[in-house]
Amino acid sequence: WIEVEWEQHTSVDFTAELRLDVTNKRGVLATIAAAISATDSNIETINTSERDGNATTVHLLLDVHDRSHLARVIRQLRTVPEVLKVARRG
Known about the structure:
4 strands, 4-stranded antiparallel sheet, elongated, 26% helix, Alpha-Beta Plaits
């Protein structure tokens, strides 16, 4: 027989795609990154597209542990004053 051990606390991470509409303001990406980091999540990809002079759309791919972790990330992002809207894609 071969002796094996299983890790006790396995984590099934997945990638979530979010779309944020934000006020186009200096430092907004840093504020968003800090909010995501505060939830112990990781940004895989970030893309932006300017909608007009006042608003920008931010597309994020994030690593999250599960649906409740994703919900915490979204709640945290909604506390950022410059974030106008948060939507999950996919």
